[in-house]
Amino acid sequence: MYAVIRTGGKQYKVAPGDTLKIETTPHQDGAIEFSDVLAVSGEAGKFEGDLNGAKVTASVVGEGRGDKILVFKLKRKKQYKKMQGHRQNYVEVKINEIFVNGKSLQ
Questions:
Q1: Coil, strand or helix: which one is 18?
Q2: I need a labelling partner for 102 at 20 to 30 A (CA). Which of 1, 8, 41, 53 fits?
Q3: Distance set, CA 24 to CA 59, 64, 100 (Å)
């Protein structure tokens, strides 16, 4: 069983027990709840038709910053060069449960 959720402008396929790194999201007491669920599959090849009240709960494992990405801009023959670095903040979460139609898929 798995669910497809949307957070931080990206979509993730998650199952109970998975850990993933998402963009920094506000959380309280180490718990995050994703209510923007796009699809839920309880069995292989079958999807839930009604996603009313579907949500995915997760617990925060850690926070950090990703690897540095270098952005280099160059205009030939114009003596223009620019180097810039970027590190994206992330929250590492572990998926606990998937709720759909009042029942828990674990």
A1: coil
A2: 8
A3: 13, 9, 25
